[in-house]
Write a structure and sequence with these properties.
mainly alpha
């Protein structure tokens, strides 16, 4: 019966991680423009801002669409959402 060697698994995972970081990740990043990455980051930041102030999924979607020219969703958006019943 062969003993289980956890070091072997960790070593293979490390090799796979290094291969991913050194080979696959740079190639994938070359396929996406810097402008696209920045747009995605800004939109993600607005969603995080909306969830931080306690909005639900539908409310966050509405707020992010409405305030897409802003860096974050304003706190006063909750009053507006109460008025339109979302």
């Amino acid at each position: 019966m062969q003993e289980h060697k956890p070091g072997k698994r960790i070593c293979s995972r490390t090799k796979l991680y290094k291969y991913f970081v050194n080979k696959i990740l740079p190639e994938a990043l070359e396929l996406v423009s810097l402008l696209k990455i920045r747009k995605f980051a800004r939109k993600s930041q607005r969603y995080m801002s909306a969830y931080r102030i306690g909005l639900t999924g539908k409310q966050a979607l509405f707020a992010v669409r409405k305030y897409k020219s802003h860096r974050r969703v304003p706190v006063l958006v909750t009053n507006e959402l109460d008025n339109i019943n979302i």
